Amino acid sequence: MEGRLLRPRIQIAALLAGLLAVGPLPAEAQGGAPYGLRDPATCTPLYQPPTVEQAVQLIRCEREVVTYGEELWLMEDMKIDFGEVTTWMEMYDEMILADADTSKPVYRIHGSFTWTVCRTIANAGAENCRESVRPEQTGACWQTRAQGWTCFLMG
Q1: What is the pLDDT of residues 64-91, one digit of tens each?
Q2: Greatest extent of the chain over all pairs of C-alpha atoms, in Å
Q3: Which of 65, 116, 121, 151 is deepest in the core (most CB within 10 A)?
C-alpha cells in the first residue's frame, strides 16, 4: 500500500519538473525587445509621498505589461499633477485603493497619457503598434499597509 501512495507523488513531481523545463520564457519575461520598444516599468518600494516623477513611475509599473496575448502595453507621454489631499473614505466610491492604510492621507492626481499597444514585430510587421490618447484622467496616490506608496491613474 505504501508504494501506491508514493507513486502519485512521484508522478506529480515528474509532471511539475517537466512543466518547469518547457523551453523559452513567455513574451512577458522577455520585456520590450520583441516589440522594438522599452521594457515595461518596474518599481522599487517607496516609503515617503512620491514626487511627480516618482508617481509617474509608480503608475507605469502598476499598468505596463506584456499580456499573455503577446501584446505590450506602455504608457507614454504621461503628464500628471497632484490635486487635493483627501481621505480614504472620500475616495471609497471613486476607485479601489488596494491594500490602503486607511488612516493615511490620499493624494488625488489628474493627468494624461498615451496608451501604446504593440504586437511583436514578427507577428505584426512594420506597423506593430497603435496609440490611444487618454486626456483628462483621474487617479490617486496612497500609502499601503505593507508595500509603501502606490499610484494609479484611470484610463
Answers
A1: 999 876 889 999 999 999 999 999 999 9
A2: 68
A3: 151
Cell of 48: 515617503
3-state secondary structure the chain: CHHHHHHHHHHHHHHHHHHHCCCCCCHHHHCCHHHCCCCCCCCCCECCCCCHHHHHHHHHHHHCEECCCCEEEEEEEEEEEEEEEECHHHHCCCCCCCCECCCCCEEEEEEEEEEEEEECHHHHCCCCEEEEEEEEEEEEEEEECCCEEEEEECC
Main-chain dihedrals φ then ψ at residue 99, nearest 5 degrees: 55, 25
Model pTM? 0.76
- Please count the structural domains in the chain: 1
Which domain, by its residues, includes 21?
2-153
Q: Are 30 and 39 in contact (CB under 8 A)?
A: no
The single-letter code of the amino acid at 65 is V
Task: Output the nine-digit C-alpha cell for 38.
Answer: 522599452
What's the pLDDT tens digit per position in 39-49? Answer: 999 988 999 99
